[in-house]
Structure formats: structure tokens, C-alpha cells
Amino acid sequence: MGDSPETLPLRDIHLPEPVSWWPLASGWWLLLAILVLIILVAVLLYRRYRSPRRAALRQARRTLTRIRTDYAGDNDDQRLVRDLSALLRRTAVSVNKREDVAALTGRDWLAFLDSAMAGQPFSEGAGWVLASGPYQPRTEFDTAELIRLCDEWLRNIETNKSS
To answer: How many Å apart are CA 147 and CA 149, to the nearest integer?
Structure first.
């Protein structure tokens, strides 16, 4: 017991190294991956639902449904032709360059519509009525086939030129 504290072979207090932030713990990596995934999904959803082309096509589908419902209620053939003609025109102008589509009339308009389809269902099929039918007092045509053709045209431009 004769040793005094000054003579004992003790070392000075040694503090541990500070905890490093790198490498990250696995929980932080998981949180980072989830954050990146959320941002990616948000960007994809934004692009999908804010695309003017897609918005125009969604609106066209809703309008076609409304036109079908209206026709089922009143069976007005002339109104059906006018509404379908306006719908296809608005949709074509919305999803294509305005200067390429807006001035098309008659056979040129029908040829443009045919370009999205197999064959020539507008120029030589049920769609011929869209060229002059809206301006005629009375026109005979197959209403069910015309509605089906317009629906098919919308589906084709939606799948063929997706942005």
C-alpha cells in the first residue's frame, strides 16, 4: 500500500472514436430506397395524368360514352353524326399538330382518319358519313357500326401514338 497515486502505472483516459455517419445503417438505406421509389412513382403518375395528349384521349372516351347514352335516349341520327364528327375532330386536333389536321375536309379528312386504322373504314366503310353527314338534313347510315368505328379509332390512336 505504499504506492501513491502518482507512482501507479496508469494511463490517461482514452475516449473512443466518434461514431461515423458513413457507412449508413441498413435502416437508412431502406428509407432512402423508399423515398426514391415514391418520387419515381409520383413522377410517372404526374406524366401520365398531366400529359395533354392523354388528357384529351381520356376526355374523348368520356365524351363518346355520353354520346352513346344520349343516342340511346333520343335516337337522333343527325345529332349522333354531328356529335361524333365534332368529337373526332376535337380529338384529332388535340393529339396532333393543329396545322396538320384542322383544315382537313371531305376525302382528306376521311383519309386522315383511315391512317390510324387497318383498311379504309372511313373512306369506304361506315365512316364515310362523317365527311358530309353533319351538313346534310337527313342521311342513312349504320349507327351501331359508326359508333363502333369511332370507338376503335380512339383506341387505335391511344395505343399507336402513346406519349
So the answer is: 5
The better pLDDT of the pair 101, 49 is held by 101
Which cell numbers hold the place of 96? Answer: 396532333
**17 grid coordinates:** 472514436
Domain locations in the chain as residue ranges: 52-160
The residue assigned the cell 437508412 is 28
Concatenating the DSSP letter of every residue in 82-128 gives: HHHHHHHHHHHHHHS-HHHHTT--HHHHHHHHHTTSSS-TTTTSGGG
Instruction: Look up the pTM and report it.
Output: 0.68
Find cell 383511315 and name the residue: 114
Question: Residue 8: what pLDDT?
Answer: 79
- Number of H helices and number of E strands within the chain? 7, 0
Provide the pLDDT for residue 163.
Answer: 43
Are 64 and 151 within 8 A, CB to CB? yes
More confident residue, 107 or 12: 107
Measured CA to CA, the distance from residue 161 to residue 75 in angstroms comes to 33
